[in-house]
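Weekly structure sync, notes
Attendees: PL, DS, HV (note-taker this week)

Item 1: Pentatricopeptide repeat-containing protein
DS walked through the input record. Source organism listed as Acorus calamus. Sequence as pasted into the shared doc:
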Amino acid sequence: MEVLVPVPVPVKGMPVGMPVPMMDRRRLANLIRDSANSSSLIRGTQSHAESLKLGFQSDLIMNNDLLCMYSKCRRPNLARQLFDTMPQRNIVSYMALMTSHLSSGDPESSLMAFRSDVGRGSLVYAACVKSGFESQPFVGNSIIAMYSKCGSIGDSVRVFDAMRERRSLVSWNAMIAGYVNAGCSRKAVLVFAEMRRNCETPDEFTLSSVFKGCGAAGDFAEGKQIHAYVVVSGFPISLKTSVASALIDFYVKCGRLVEARRVIDRTVVKNEVSWIVMMAGYVQEGCLYEAMDLFREIRKVETIVDGFILSSLAGVFADLALIVQGKQIHAYTTKISCVLDVSVANSIGDMYLKCGLIDDAIKRFEEIASKNVVSWTVMIIGYGKHGHAREAIHLFKAMRVEMIEPDEVAYLAVLSACSHAGLVKESREYFKRLRRDSCVQPKVEHYACMVDVLGRAGRLEEAKSLIEDMPIKANVGIWQTLLSACRVHKDLKMGIEVGGILMELDEGNAVNYVMVSNIYAEAEEWRVREDSRIDEEKRLEEGWRA
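Item 1 (cont.): predicted structure, written out as tokens:
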């Protein structure tokens, strides 16, 4: 019978670091090790409780011994609880925790804690090599995935190459997905080809990744060839929704809508992603009749078209200002309003605003029973883009009255509205409020709005000081905004200074050269005009004297 023993928890106010006789420490350490060697969980937890009473919760060596004890008792959950409370950890701590998961037959969890931290993961991998764990395929696979997710694709390749004789399908999948996510689609295809040469049969995950890579690279020939291989090999694409969706997306990105439609028609179980990708492809290529025909087909297949599809469709039509098609979506939603969520209403309101139909957007906004922060933000953005800054500000204030806390997008929306209208005072007010907001941190985009509004008002020195005092690194775009303002207000001195900064930040960008050359060209024109004015004044003065 399994005995459930909770891991001891430090009590608030418990003495930490108080002098303890060395004899007690040695006795306790021996008890913990004996418990580990005999796999006695009860004795081990009793020793753990005593160590806490004696103030050893900050003792790294003692905690590592306890981790090893829980590992040998096959209690990875208790080891994890202790690990999370340890104030100090070293490589022994990480190895003990990982060993605990491995010995319990849970390889996935063994490296889960390290996948988001490439430095820590490298440390663990070094320990794996030293301890011989790297011979375990699941360890290598987890390390490859960890490096890939941390953006260290070179390290993923190094581990993958070292596993040459021990690769499994999971290894190949991890490497292909890593290349695709890193934007190295061509290399992903090469790994897939090598995988086939090694007689490894791809699965659903492999094919989804490789089609995604071909689509991202726009490599129609390679993707078509892989599709042919999949068909010949007998892989049931029509039954595998994730592969079918990836294949549809590949054909759409390559502009091959006929092939994409053929795949979706043959797919037995269609998901919402497939519908949306196909619909977006039709709209982007200007095939509006086919898009609406597909929507009618969706309505036949699906009893009720869900909110995700409707929101996505409204978003596509909004981006292309297709008001007729957008209104058809709206008309459909009114028939099934009882099952729709607020996201659909927000998307329809956004569509009306992007099409310039402010009154329709307002009406839709007022019909939303439970408005969220997105509902308010959509309207604020719309008002700002159409030059109704005062209305945008009023709505922002109303949102606060309704106890809806603005997020970073809402702040950006009201700042943009103030910027477009040249409302310097109001911009400063909301920017100060943003900086005081403990829940939202200003980003580069917020600073860019302030630089824009100050630049429009001719407050160039203030704008430059704001950039220089930013707690985050200023990007090229924010300096370009200031340079444009220098040109508008004919501030040659600052324009040359800002141009120099841009050249240092991004010297390979041709746009910067054009902007700087325009500053110099206009500066020369100003000099010519100034010289002409002085010559004219001298001529008139001489004329009066004569």
